[in-house]
Amino acid sequence: DWVMRDHIAEALVQIRQQVGVEQVILGLSGGVDSSVAAALIQRAIGAQLTCVFVDHGLLRLNEGDMVMDMFAGRLQARVIRVDASESFLSRLAGVSDPEAKRKIIGGLFIEVFKTEAAKLKANNAEHRGATFLAQGTIYPDVIESGGAKSKKAVTIKSHHNVGGLPEQLGLKLLEPLRDLFKDEVRELGLALGLPPEMVYRHPFPGPGLGVRILGEVKKEFADLLRQADAIFIEELHNFTDPATGKTWYQLTSQAFAVFLPVKSVGVMGDGRTYDYVVALRAVQTSDFMTADQAELPYALLKKVSSRIINEVRGINRVTYDISSKPPATIEWE
Ligand code: XMP
Fold first, then answer.
1. Does 56 sit in the ligand 1 pocket, CB within 6 Å?
2. How far is the CA of 21 from the centre of ligand 1 (A)?
3. Disulfide-capable partner of 132 in 24, 268, 300, 308 (CB 3.0 to 4.6 Å)?
4. Is residue 69 in a domain?
5. Which segments does the entry list as coiled coil (predicted)?
6. Which residues pair with 14 in a beta bridge?
7. Nearest in space to 179 (alpha carbons), one of 149, 152, 140
8. Are the C-beta atoms of 323 and 291 separated by less than 8 Å?
């Protein structure tokens, strides 16, 4: 629509004015906000933007390739994919405390990103001088960091964000989504040509599967979880609620599988199995501060369960999480 076209035109002019002939670096995660920011900035300044996509090895099935296809492929953006999965896995070895895991993942993420940003800055130094760091900060993030957060006496979970990073890197900030609410960001993304699957994606935590594998993170566990999770998400898209005409993916705010590192006995063919368990989690919420477990249709749960058990060798039991937040949280760690 014309309001959005106007808004885009204005944003493009503003970005070009602010950036001039300088270079911009953006940390691409595959999430909605950084994706829309990347698409917008790319439209404004093309090859002056370099996206850095840090793959920590804890992404969902095919996620890294999808991000690359979209940005390097369809949008023709400059994207550096850093495959850091081995570093992440080796630093996580033997660590099972959730907060310790979060700190390791968040810290290493920033380390890897900084190294890439410093390389790019050095490459550009003699030609272009200073450089910008672009972030997909949206209006609710701006409000949240304005003090409301400090009211909380206890940290339930430490979320990693890149606060202080621009100063440390000697970069200026570019935040073209700062005035927008989430629904406006999605609309902007669609108008910029991002596919609805990307724009309406459920949120995914920064530490990724690292907080969905209970206890110690191992590659073997991540591989099993990725397969189970992909089946769950696929079936949420396949099942439609007749009353609303919406899919169960659309009717839930967040849904995913969780890997439980315990083994239970099962039977398959004429053999006994002794394999791992996954839990399915699906919630409905408007603000993620409180949430209700989704009342998924039993037929959907049955389909997902039988597919996971039949298709994922190494998992022989599937459970459904029926806890609300509070007292449970959405993620299991
Ligand atoms: P909880 O589990 O606290 O999750 O009920 C609320 C929302 O926050 C997301 N979440 C995170 N996001 N880094 C993130 O970027 C994190 O460490 C993190 N922990 C939880 C969670 O996915 C849910 O949407």
1. no
2. 37
3. 24
4. yes
5. none
6. none
7. 140
8. no
pLDDT digits (tens, 9 = 90+) for 242-255: 999 999 999 999 99
Domain end: 170, 199, 228, which one? 199
pLDDT score for 150: 44
CATH number (domain holding residue 241): 3.30.300.10
Q: Which of 135, 211, 330 to mutate to test the pocket of ligand 1 (most atoms within 8 A of CB)?
A: 330
State yes or no: ipTM above 0.95: yes
189 and 235 in one domain?
Answer: no
* Whether 102 and 216 share a structural domain: no
pLDDT digits (tens, 9 = 90+) for 267-323: 998 999 999 999 999 999 999 999 999 999 999 999 999 999 999 999 999 999 999
Would you give the DSSP letter of residue 205? -
Annotated binding site: 29-35
- Same domain for 280 and 159, yes or no, is no
Task: Please tell me whether residues 18 and 93 are part of one structural domain.
Answer: yes
What percentage of the chain reaches a pLDDT higher than 70? 93
When pLDDT is cut at 50, 70 and 90, the band that residue 161 belongs to is: low
Give φ, ψ of 124 to 5 degrees: -95, -10
- What's the predicted TM-score (pTM) here? 0.94
**Domain count of the fold of the chain:** 2
If asked whether residues 66 and 155 sit together in one domain, one would say yes
- In DSSP notation, 81-117 reads EEE-HHHHHHHHTT---HHHHHHHHHHHHHHHHHHHH
Select from 199, 225, 254 the last residue of a domain: 199
In 3D space, the residue among 278, 260, 78, 56 whose CA is nearest the CA of residue 160 turns out to be 56
331: CB partners within 8 A, 6+ apart: 157, 205, 211, 212, 281
Averaged pLDDT, 19-47: 95
Residue type, 45: I
For residue 329 and ligand 1, the question of a CB distance below 6 A is answered with yes
Range of the structural domain that residue 141 is part of: 2-199
Token pair listed for 208: 């990724």
- What was the pLDDT predicted at 148? 47
Closest ligand 1 atom, CA of 331? 2
Angle (CA) 19-23-27 rounded to 5° is 105
- For range 150-172, the mean pLDDT: 68
